[in-house]
Each structure stands twice: as structure tokens, then as C-alpha cells.
Specification:
Elements: H1 2-8, E1 12-18, E2 26-35, E3 38-46, E4 51-58, E5 64-71, E6 83-88, E7 108-115, E8 126-132, E9 143-144, E10 164-172, E11 182-189, E12 203-210, E13 216-219, E14 231-240, E15 243-253, E16 256-267, E17 274-275, E18 282-283, E19 292-301, E20 304-312, E21 318-324
Antiparallel strand pairs: 1-21, 2-3, 3-4, 4-5, 6-7, 7-8, 8-9, 10-11, 11-12, 12-13, 14-15, 15-16, 16-17, 16-18, 19-20, 20-21
Length: 335
């Protein structure tokens, strides 16, 4: 675990790299991939109505230009008309690898949080799947399945996810370690403490599997990563040699009631995870992330580790920042 920590740590905060155009909008949840000679970041933006999914481009992982939207609001009666918070799927998981998105059935794929209620994560939230046969780096509306693949009202819903489902990560395991080619990690909350409302928002990470990216089956009754009180969420996986590393964030744990932070856990089998007990990978330390520093996406490129995360300041401005394993200077971007 110590060796993994030394490999992935990023002690140098570069600062903000993607910020909203004004303070009525909030940017969150980076996913970073490579295509051709450029890097691309999908992220989600909240504007008061709900979440939409956007994409930005960079040559060097530090300077980013927004290109446009991948999933927008729809003025329809669709189950997800007001919430479409997307995350890349089927990325090459090799640490320090090419970070490309892989195709399945000649399509690129995303999973997403969907919902029809307006507001910040309001109403029922479920997990949807979207895909495209077009170029994933060009802003265009992705095709969405007509109904969610996992929701809190499913007959096989588990105790920890019977209220809302949140961020998901889908990896491709061609070895079919768990019997299926596609594995999803996602966080959700449920009535886990005798139906006392104050406990309902606790989030935990659990699993589902699929053979076709469309039909998903829940895997095991219990979460694979949790810390009892508070939030454990937003898993993102990469493989360092034969060890799977899950980057995730924690918030408001029993021993750290007012804090948010990014951490990691390791596994050989994708199910049983050993939690890192040492220093946080990311925590609040700068004015731009003074309120929250959380939600990871980590890449290693040409010997340098880049840890992207969501930064929230004391005024509730929300954007994407990055920390690195070597000093890259300081960003001039501010909220």
C-alpha cells in the first residue's frame, strides 16, 4: 500500500483548470481520456435546473478549452429530462497507459445519473447508459437508453441504495474475473439506520455486472467500500501491474465530520478492497478548494501523475482543479 501511495501521490497543487462562466453555474466530476494527440475531459455542469454533460480539450493536461455538450436537457417527458450527469466508460485501465476509450459493438459508451426533477440532485436519481457511433470528442447528443439500467425501485434493490443512485464507473474486464465482461461501481444512499431521516444521505460504493452494457445485475448484497457515517463515493479504477487501485472520495466521516478528501483502496480480485490508512491524496488547503476538495480522476503521463478533482471555495464556487507529482507551477485561472 505504501508503494502504491508513493506511486500515485501528487503533493503539488497546480490550481484550477476548468471554471464556470459565471457563479450561477457549478462544474463537477471530471473524467479524462486521450484520443489522437490530445486529451479530453468530460465534466458535468449544474445551472439551477439540473446536470448536463460537457466536454473540454487540452494538449498538456493543464490548459483546457471547452468544446460543447454531450448530453443536454430535454423538454420532454423522458425519465432523465432534467438530469444527465455523464461519466466515460470502457477506458483502458492501465496505469500510465494510453487512456483511450475502447469501443464495444462499434460504439463508445457512457454511464450517467439521470432524473426528471429540477434542482440540485433532487427527486429520484437512477443510472442510465448512453452510447454513440460518432466521434466521442465532437460535441453531439449521445444516444440514451429509454429507461434506467439501475434504479432505487428495482425489485432486487439493496439496503444501502433504496433512495438515490449516484456516480458510476464502468470498466471492461476481458478476463471475466467475476463472470461478466463489464463491471460497474457506483455509489448510492439508502435507509440504513432504522429509517431515521438524518442518516439517509450516507453513501456507499457497490457493484453491478453486465454481459452487454444494457442489462445489469447487482453483485453481492453489501457495498464493497464504505465507512459507515458520511459519504464514500465516486470510484475510479486503474490497474498498476497486477493491483487494481480504486480512487474514491470521502466526506463527513465520523472522525472527520467537516472534511472532504480523496483516498484510494487496492484489490487483486475487484471485490475485496484494502483501504489505505495513510495520508489523503487530496484535501482542502487552498482558497479555491477551502470548502471541498473531492472526486478524483487520476492519470499518469510521461512520468507525471495528474490528479484532477472538484474544488469548491467558501463562496460555493465549484470547478475542476489538478494536483501533480512534480511542480508544474501555478494556474492563473480563478473563480
Amino acid at each position: 500500500m505504501q508503494k502504491v501511495y508513493e506511486e500515485v501521490k501528487t503533493p503539488f497543487k497546480y490550481g484550477l483548470v476548468v471554471t464556470p462562466e459565471n457563479e450561477t453555474k457549478k462544474i463537477d466530476c471530471p473524467s479524462v481520456f486521450r484520443k489522437g494527440n490530445s486529451w479530453y475531459m468530460t465534466y458535468i455542469q449544474f445551472d439551477g435546473r439540473g446536470y448536463e454533460t460537457w466536454i473540454a480539450k487540452s494538449k498538456d493536461l493543464l490548459d483546457w478549452t471547452t468544446l460543447g455538450k454531450l448530453m443536454s436537457f430535454s423538454d420532454t417527458t423522458d425519465w432523465d429530462n432534467n438530469q444527465k450527469a455523464g461519466y466515460i466508460a470502457l477506458q483502458n485501465t492501465k496505469w500510465g497507459g494510453n487512456y483511450k476509450l475502447e469501443k464495444y459493438q462499434n460504439k463508445y459508451w457512457m454511464s450517467y445519473i439521470g432524473g426528471r426533477d429540477r434542482g440540485y440532485e433532487s427527486g429520484p436519481l437512477a443510472i442510465g447508459i448512453a452510447n454513440t457511433t460518432n466521434d466521442p470528442i465532437k460535441p453531439h447528443e449521445w444516444n440514451r437508453l429509454s429507461k434506467p439500467v439501475l434504479s432505487s425501485t428495482d425489485t432486487d434493490v439493496r439496503w444501502w441504495e433504496n433512495r438515490k443512485l449516484y456516480k458510476s464507473t464502468v470498466i471492461r474486464d476481458k478476463d471475466k474475473t467475476l463472470g461478466s465482461e463489464f463491471i460497474m461501481y457506483y455509489n448510492a444512499n439508502g435507509d440504513s439506520s432504522g429509517n431515521k431521516p438524518k442518516w439517509r444521505w450516507f453513501e456507499r460504493i457497490g457493484m453491478a455486472v453486465s454481459d452487454d452494457m444494457v442489462n445489469w445485475k447487482r453483485y453481492h448484497a453489501d457495498p464493497v467500500m464504505e465507512h459507515g457515517v458520511g459519504i464514500t463515493g465516486d470510484a475510479v479504477l486503474q490497474k498498476i501491474n497486477d493491483v487494481w487501485v480504486m480512487f474514491y472520495f470521502g466526506a463527513f466521516w465520523e472522525t472527520r465530520k467537516n472534511e472532504t478528501f480523496n483516498r484510494f483502496a487496492c484489490s487483486y480480485d475487484l471485490v475485496n478492497w484494502t483501504d489505505w490508512k495513510g495520508e489523503d491524496l487530496i484535501k482542502s488547503s487552498e482558497p479555491y478548494d477551502a470548502k471541498y476538495a473531492h472526486k478524483s480522476f487520476v492519470v499518469k503521463w510521461k512520468g507525471v501523475v495528474y490528479h484532477f478533482y472538484c474544488a469548491v471555495d467558501k463562496k460555493d464556487n465549484r470547478g475542476i482543479a489538478v494536483a501533480t507529482s512534480v511542480d508544474k507551477g501555478k494556474s492563473k485561472l480563478q473563480f
